[in-house]
Amino acid sequence: MKVMNVFSRLISASVVMLTASNALTVFGATTNVIVGTAGGADIFTPNILRINQGDTIIWNWQGSFHSTTSGSAGTPSGFWDSGTTAQNAGFSFTNTLNSAGEFPFYCRFHFGFPTFMTGLVTVASVTLPPSVSITNPPNGATLAEPASFNLAANASSTGGSVTNVQFFQGAASLGNVTTAPYSVPVNSLTAADYSFSAVASDNGGRAATNSITVHVVTPVAIVLSAPQFFAPSDFRFNYTANPGLSYIIQRASSLNSGTWTILRTNVAGTSPELYDDQTASGNPAYYRVGRLPNP
Predict the structure, then answer these.
(1) For the chain, what is the radius of gyration of the CA atoms?
(2) Model pTM?
(3) With CB atoms 3.0 to 4.6 Å apart as the test, which of 60, 71, 91, 283 could cross-link to 77 if both were Cys?
(4) How far is CA 114 from CA 37, 63, 67, 73, in A?
(5) Are strands 30-35 and 101-106 parallel, antiparallel or unpaired?
């Protein structure tokens, strides 16, 4: 007969539910180009484009048996290609140009006389703001009260250099970090809702922000219940848990052996959680469930 031993980690705990809104600034406009026309003309409309670095072109087929290929005179340059096979009306192709310069393009099947289905994209150089993303706590994580962690972020700049990353809890500054790795400590959060943000600045005075929201609650006590043994080797029980927190389930043949076998570690999805040990035997065994520390 199975004997259950309730095991709880002796840690004060509460739950932190992380609802993150990754509010990264998005740059880049979108330009649409018609490939062929409904009337059957073999043209690009427009065929001369002036866009900025990081902008996106969406090519929409209204005619058939066409391609969009970077290069000229039937020689591809390798920057983009809708494919060596001709596409027909209703097809679309999207590409983003991250490099400045002039990029001629053509249709693989109609670049010569009499249609000369060709064009040119001029991409202007643009100095973009830095990018920043909070990397810890992870998006959607759940932690236990009192919640302590390093609020960390990655930041980079393509048009300059990152000079600092400033961290905020709500409107209050937690610190200003001038060199990577960018992080500040957050300590002993109690049950409440919190917002955190990281603001990266570069040497050109440009800035970008990323924010997350953290929800802290108090965890429930771990209680094991509803034991069931199905011969010859299936033993089941329930345990109370907080959805989003991580738990460890262990088994031992004797309380005096000091040897516990890890059966499962998991993030709880509901409460109570059902555990099914399909490798149990008819011999006495002890089970314990503990809540894992915050990552």
Answers:
(1) 30
(2) 0.58
(3) 71
(4) 16, 17, 17, 13
(5) unpaired
Distance between CA atoms of residues 186 and 192, nearest Å: 14
How is domain 30-124 classified at the CATH fold level? Immunoglobulin-like (2.60.40)
Q: Which amino acid is at 33?
A: V
pLDDT at 269: 94
- The domain ranges of the chain are 15-25+128-217, 30-124, 224-291
Cβ 56 vs Cβ 92: under 8 Å: no
Q: What is the pLDDT of residues 74-89, one digit of tens each?
A: 899 999 999 999 999 9
Taking a C-beta distance cutoff of 8 angstroms, is the pair 132, 153 a contact?
A: yes
Does this chain's domain 15-25+128-217 share its CATH topology with 224-291?
yes
Other Cβ atoms closer than 10 A to 211: 16
Q: Which two tokens stand for residue 146?
A: 């009192």
SS3 category, 162: strand
Average pLDDT over residues 162-191: 97
Class of the CATH domain delimited by 15-25+128-217:
mainly beta
pLDDT digit string, tens, across residues 115-145: 789 999 999 988 778 999 999 998 778 899 9
CA distances from 189 to 116, 129, 143, 210, 213 (A): 67, 32, 10, 20, 13
Q: Which residues pair with 186 in a beta bridge?
A: 149
**pLDDT per residue over 13-66, tens digit each?**
222 222 222 222 234 699 999 999 867 789 999 999 999 988 999 999 999 999
Region 224-291: CATH code: 2.60.40.10
The CA distance from 98 to 282, in Å, is 66
DSSP 77-96: EEEEES-SS-B-TT-EEEEE
Quick one: pLDDT at residue 282?
66
56-61/30-35 β-pairing: parallel
